[in-house]
Structure formats: structure tokens, C-alpha cells
Design goal:
This protein is mainly α. The chain folds into two domains: 197 residues, CDP-alcohol phosphotransferase transmembrane (TM) domain (Four Helix Bundle (Hemerythrin (Met), subunit A)), CATH 1.20.120.1760; 65 residues, no CATH class. 77% of the residues lie in helices and 2% in strands. The chain is built from nine helices and two strands, in the order H-H-H-H-H-E-H-H-E-H-H. Strands 1-2 form a two-stranded antiparallel sheet. Helix 5 runs parallel beside helix 7. The longest helix is centred in the N-terminal third of the chain and has 34 residues. The N and C termini lie far apart (104 Å).
């Protein structure tokens, strides 16, 4: 009976060890699977950007612009999911940059070229090429220079989304034939490669609402609200335009404040 009991006990022991090892195997594989989730959003961003290129080539401009919007949504989710599952690493950062060049650099540039820049011949082609070039330079700098609380230069995601949104909203109203289109693209390219700080809104600064903070944020918010009241259909365009102008606006306010402080210091001497 004892031998039988011991013989019967050994298989149970081995099965228990295998069960424990099997549980560890599934946990490890599960963690690896979860860590891939941010990359799936990044690849969705890349795929939507590629489909936007295809739609532009097929002259389906509304769909091409909407696909850039899908890329923006996927790009916003991949970073948040990466931080949530603690899978934010160098590989994901590099993959995200490559996807952004396609989705927010090449795709909006081709869309703009197809809509109207082709009428300008080689000059239009140069403007179209300049846009993703500036975006790629902006991303390369972003991967090398780490900042906290702000971006250096307008992010390519905001620039590309704004260009696509403008074409989606005003393309049929003659934006492609207007000299405003190449001017906007050159301006966005400059803002991307500039060193103008843009708030990243990752951390909300708390504190008393001072006069300076009311001027900083109250004026842009009021103008954005006024624009939406005048043209409710521009609900996507207005926030992007506001953000693109926010960097230069805050920079001017800061420079003005520094000048006033220097004048006060000089007068007190």
C-alpha cells in the first residue's frame, strides 16, 4: 500500500511541477503579447498613412484626409498604451518616428500636391517635398533632444493633421487653387524645424489663475470659440490651427514679459 501510495504520489508531484512551469510560460507569453499592443497601434498609424497615399493617387481626396485623421488617433493611442503596459522603449520610439514620416509627412504632402500644388510645376513639387523633409528633421531632433513639458518645434503630427484637415474642409472651396496652400505648407515646415516651444499638455499645471495665465490661455481659447461659433463645421480645423499658432503666441508673450522686466530693473537702478 505504501509503495502504491508513493508510486501514485510521484506522478502527481511531476504534474504539479509541470503545471507551475506551464503557468509561468503562459504568464511570460502573455506579458510579451501585451507589450506588442503599442506596436499594433503604431503599425495601424503606418497602414492608414499608406492607404492615404493610395487614396490621393486615386484622387479620392476626402478619404485620403480622413485616413490621416485615423493615423492621428492611432498615434495618440500608441504612446498611452505603451506607458500603460510599461512597454515604451527605443524600438517603439524609432518605429513611431518612421510611421509618422509616412502618415503625417508624405501622405499630407502628396494630398496637397494632388489637390493643387501640381499646378505650380517644379515649384509645387519642391514645396510638397519640403514638407516631409522638415517633418523628418523635426522627428530626428525629437529622438535626440529630450525635453519635459514642451516640444521643440511644431510636432509633425499636428502639422500633417492640420494640412489634411484644411484640405478636407476647404478643398472643395478652392483651397487647391489658392496661393494660400503653398504658403501654409512653407509656414508649417518652418514651425516644425524651428525651436519655438510648444506645450505638450502631458501635465496640467495647477495654481491660482493669475492675470498672466488668463492672457496666455484665455485669448487663444476665446478666439477658438469665436471661430467655432462662426463656422461650426470647422470643429476639427480650429483646434489644430489654434495649437499651431499657440507656440509663436506664447513665445511673443514671454519675450514681451522679459523686455518689461528688463525695463523695470533698469528704471530701479
Amino acid at each position: 500500500m505504501t509503495a502504491a501510495h508513493g508510486g501514485a504520489g510521484r506522478p502527481r508531484g511531476r504534474l504539479r511541477i509541470r503545471a507551475i512551469r506551464g503557468g509561468k510560460w503562459f504568464r511570460e507569453r502573455g506579458q510579451k503579447g501585451i507589450s506588442l499592443l503599442p506596436h499594433l497601434f503604431t503599425l495601424t498609424n503606418l497602414a492608414a498613412g499608406f492607404y492615404s497615399l493610395v487614396m490621393s493617387a486615386q484622387q479620392n481626396y476626402q478619404a485620403a484626409a480622413l485616413l490621416v485623421g485615423i493615423s492621428l488617433l492611432a498615434d495618440g493611442l500608441d504612446g498611452r498604451v505603451a506607458r500603460l503596459v510599461r512597454a515604451d522603449g527605443e524600438f517603439g520610439k524609432e518605429l513611431d518616428s518612421l510611421a509618422d514620416v509616412v502618415a503625417f509627412g508624405a501622405a499630407p504632402a502628396l494630398l496637397a500636391y494632388q489637390v493643387g500644388l501640381h499646378r505650380l510645376g517644379p515649384y509645387g513639387l519642391a514645396v510638397a517635398a519640403l514638407f516631409p523633409i522638415c517633418g523628418a528633421l523635426r522627428l530626428a531632433r525629437f529622438n535626440l533632444i529630450h525635453t519635459s513639458g514642451f516640444f521643440l518645434g511644431l510636432p509633425i503630427t499636428a502639422a500633417g493633421s492640420l494640412l489634411a484637415a484644411l484640405i478636407y474642409r476647404y478643398g472643395e472651396a478652392g483651397l487647391g487653387e489658392s496661393p494660400l496652400l503653398p504658403a501654409v505648407m512653407v509656414a508649417l515646415g518652418f514651425l516644425m524645424i524651428s525651436t519655438i516651444p510648444y506645450p505638450d499638455f502631458k501635465k496640467v499645471r495647477r495654481g491660482r489663475a493669475t492675470r498672466g495665465r488668463l492672457v496666455e490661455w484665455g485669448v487663444p481659447a476665446s478666439l477658438a470659440l469665436w471661430s467655432l461659433v462662426r463656422d461650426p463645421q470647422s470643429i476639427v480645423v480650429v483646434p489644430l490651427v489654434t495649437y499651431a499658432l499657440l507656440g509663436p503666441y506664447l513665445l511673443v508673450l514671454r519675450k514681451a514679459g522679459e523686455s518689461v522686466a528688463r525695463l523695470r530693473a533698469a528704471s530701479e537702478r
